[in-house]
Design brief:
By secondary structure, this protein is mainly alpha-helical. The mean pLDDT is 83. Helices cover 80% and strands 0% of the residues. The longest helix has 56 residues, at 2-57.
């Protein structure tokens, strides 16, 4: 009888450990899938940027430095391979695109151009989708990190190499500009 109780306890313990391990794998895969969704949106963004730059170049020939920064940031973002590199490259591209938006303010006739308006609308749509998938990525990262750091799953996580993963965060240099209210000019 004692042997049966010990056997049942061992089987339940093993099943519990298997469940915890499988949950950790599921959470890691959800996080990777969430980043794959970001990759899809980033690819659309990267595909639209050359069109936007080409449209704007005709109006703003002397803004070469801004275009160069956008083009370089896009290239860096497309060649990034790890999640960390992609996050850093995407943040660099976001900053470059912000510089482009500021430069565009000097060209009211460009803002009336139908091709430009359509591209601007498509980019705004992609930026909104990117924000949504970044939020989802951070949610899946938080869930994984919670499991990696809480007992008893933290024991199994450490044994099998699961670790706390970074969130998709705004770089420190961009935070200062976000604290200011946007200027609206008519």
């Amino acid at each position: 009888m004692t042997l049966i109780i010990i056997l049942v306890v061992v089987v339940l313990l093993v099943l519990g450990l298997i469940g915890i391990y499988n949950n950790l794998v599921k959470l890691r895969n959800n996080r990777e899938n969430a980043f794959a969704n970001i990759d899809v949106q980033l690819k659309q963004r990267y595909d639209l940027i050359p069109q936007l730059v080409a449209t704007v170049k005709g109006y703003a020939e002397h803004e070469k430095e801004v275009f160069l920064k956008v083009t370089e940031a896009r290239s860096a973002a497309m060649s990034a391979t790890t999640i960390g590199e992609k996050i850093a490259a995407d943040n660099q591209l976001t900053r470059a695109l912000s510089g482009l938006k500021v430069s565009l303010e000097a060209y009211p006739e460009l803002k009336a151009n139908q091709n430009f308006l359509q591209l601007q609308s498509e980019i705004a749509d992609i930026e909104n989708k990117l924000a949504a998938v970044r939020r989802y990525f951070n949610t899946t990262t938080r869930e994984l990190n919670n499991s990696v750091q809480t007992f008893p799953s933290n024991i199994l996580a450490g044994m099998f190499g699961f670790k706390k993963e970074p969130m998709y965060e705004i770089p420190e240099e961009s935070r200062a500009s976000m604290d200011k209210a946007p200027e609206i000019n008519f």
